[in-house]
């Protein structure tokens, strides 16, 4: 399938005239991802405080980028709380890679804590 996604910058996502179908086409991955967990002790959770998110589109952008990484189990980003909570398999990815993925969206990780 041809990739007809329109490139967005962070402020484009907050525009009221951007349709849900356009956002879905931009954010939803085209490939299914499988994750096999061998040992539950490899599961880790981390909280990333993020500066710059102003709407749900911003939070969705962060979730989409983090979900591209191998080993991600769950990402919940909130522009209201200014954070993302990420559960991941630490044998496949790490806090530094997740931070880099978040920073690649144009928002900034200001603090991070592992759980």
From TrEMBL:
Domain (HMA): residue spans on this chain: 44-110
UniProt entry keywords in alphabetical sequence: Metal-binding
Listed InterPro entries: Heavy-metal-associated_CS, HMA_dom, HMA_dom_sf, MerP/CopZ
SUPFAM superfamilies: HMA, heavy metal-associated domain (SSF55008)
UniProt-recorded name of the protein: Heavy metal-associated domain-containing protein
Organism: Imperialibacter roseus
